[in-house]
Design goal:
This protein is of the alpha+beta class and 297 residues long. It folds into three domains: 13-103, no CATH class; 107-217, Band 7 domain (Tetrahydropterin Synthase, Chain A, 2-Layer Sandwich); 227-281, no CATH class. 47% of the residues lie in helices and 22% in strands.
């Protein structure tokens, strides 16, 4: 979007000084007219001066406006942009200029939970909160129809686009170290801030912060994905259990051999390994069987 408007400082005066000037003019008018009316000696020049003083006083009052901290006034004269006044307090400008007040404070935008497809095409629910504020008042007012609606729609579009660039979670089809929505939320938030900054620039708005507030699989696949995660967790746990059991069996056989406690042939070593692995890797308590005969019966 091409912008033809840039914020410029408006010419304004101290409102307190202009208030007293206007008050003086309003008081001078009656002071000139009332004595003439009482004395029945009315002169056209003095009467006109009194009327003009009151009119100018009213115009001075009409040019007064108040600005709070982090608030700006956009001044336009017959539709033409005259500048932006960011000075807080009581201010005064040409009474013929229209004055539109605009908050320059930081604002929160809660992007409601959206259902989108991630990089793999899986439906996910994603929500975000965006902190933003107006940077250029002229762009915000004159280059877009309504900058609040513009920010809201562009934020939603950015979140949808961002979700499609990343997978929800790790998988075999992803490159090692590739960023995902669940594991790389800091990187995703930084990418979202960059994209929002580009989208908001046309409206004179800057991004202060942006973070994901909600991230989950869509209900229709949530149970399936939960079982998948549980299966991955079980496989990981079983792998560690087997690795530990193999180390323990190896240590046991090595200790028996070094201390000459019992001499085992290959067949009995295999049986011992099998029994130890069953005991160590089973997720239930094993039931021992006592052999009342010899080792070879």
């Amino acid at each position: 979007m091409n912008s033809n408007h840039r914020e410029s400082a408006a010419a304004s005066a101290n409102g307190y000084l202009m208030f007293f000037i206007g008050l003086a003019l309003v008081l001078i008018g009656p002071a000139l007219i009332v004595p003439m009316v009482v004395s029945a000696n009315v002169t056209v020049g003095t009467f006109a001066a009194g009327i003009l003083a009151m009119l100018f006083g009213a115009l001075v009052f009409a040019g007064l406006y108040m600005l709070q901290p982090n608030e700006a006034a956009i001044l336009t004269l017959f539709g033409a942009y005259s500048g932006t006044d960011r000075s807080s307090g009581l201010r005064w400008a040409n009474p013929l200029k229209a004055k539109r007040k605009l908050s320059m404070r930081a604002r929160n935008l809660n992007v409601t939970t959206l259902k989108v497809n991630d990089k793999r095409g899986n439906p996910v629910e994603i929500g975000a909160v965006v902190v933003w504020r107006v940077r250029d008042s002229a762009q915000a007012v004159f280059d877009v129809d309504s900058f609040e609606i513009y920010v809201s729609l562009q934020a939603e579009a950015a979140v949808r686009h961002l979700a499609a660039l990343y997978a929800y979670d790790d998988g075999d089809d992803l490159a090692p170290g590739e960023t995902t929505l669940r594991a790389g939320q800091d990187e995703v938030a930084a990418a979202m801030r960059d994209e929002l900054g580009l989208r908001f620039a046309a409206a004179g708005v800057e991004v202060v912060d942006a973070k994901l507030t909600h991230l989950a699989y869509a209900p229709e696949i949530a149970q399936v994905m939960l079982r998948r995660q549980q299966a991955e967790a079980v496989i990981s746990a079983r792998s560690k259990i087997v690795q530990g059991a193999v180390s323990m069996v190896e240590s046991a056989l090595k200790g028996l051999s070094e201390r000459h406690i019992v001499e085992l042939d290959d067949e009995r070593k295999a049986a011992m390994v099998t029994n130890l692995l069953v005991v160590l890797c089973s997720d239930r308590e094993t039931q021992p069987i006592v052999n009342a005969g010899t080792l070879y019966n």
